[in-house]
Specification:
By secondary structure, the chain is α/β, with parallel strands linked by helices. Helix content is about 40%, strand content about 30%.
């Protein structure tokens, strides 16, 4: 009962973070000692953002988060092809993996200490046109916002949650990279 209340409370915090969009959010770290024990991680597919540009945004941001975790050298990351075969074998859809308990079960099958789940809540491009002496000057701003949760597969407890966003004048990938770095940076400081 106590664990369910704690998980419910953390789920509420994660939902608040998700609804906040691209505003800077404080990270949630539960049990730094427990987080220190996590060595191997599987990053499950992220949920896509709504909107015109959101299709396949979850896969893009998931890949960027995976790269950030891998490049940190602080975790052993399960290869995406192995993860895909387990998800296919278990006959799961990406939406099933958002549930913390289902994600923890997949993590146990993969033999990892924790799973990372998340969603992309913003994947937009704002375009502004300014005319200077009849010459159009077009500027674009790409925005990517995402929420991430790390779940201990043994306890089903959320041990880390954070959201963040990134912007770029160049393209979605750069904005997504900045969002991934924003989300992961506090986790790496704790580890």
């Amino acid at each position: 009962m106590k664990r369910n209340l704690r998980t419910g409370f953390l789920g509420t915090i994660a939902a608040a973070i998700l609804l906040a969009g691209c505003e800077p959010q404080p990270e949630v770290v539960v049990g730094k000692q427990e987080l220190q024990k996590i060595r191997s991680v599987a990053v499950l597919p992220f949920e896509d953002a709504p909107g015109e540009y959101g299709q396949r945004s979850g896969m893009a941001v998931c890949g960027l988060v995976t790269n950030e975790l891998t490049n940190s050298g602080k975790f052993r990351i399960v290869e995406r092809s192995r993860l895909k075969s387990i998800v296919d074998e278990q006959n799961l859809q990406a939406t099933d993996l958002i549930d913390a308990q289902t994600a923890a079960k997949v993590g146990k099958v993969l033999g990892v200490d924790a799973v990372v789940i998340g969603s992309v809540n913003q994947y937009e491009m704002d375009k502004t046109t300014v005319y200077v002496h009849v010459v159009p000057i077009v500027s674009k701003e790409y925005k990517v916002g995402a929420t991430l949760r790390m779940i201990n597969v043994e306890t089903g407890q959320i041990v880390y949650a954070h959201s963040g966003c990134g912007t770029s004048a160049n393209h979605f990938n750069e904005a997504g990279q900045r969002a991934a770095q924003t989300i992961i940076a506090p986790l790496l400081r704790v580890r």
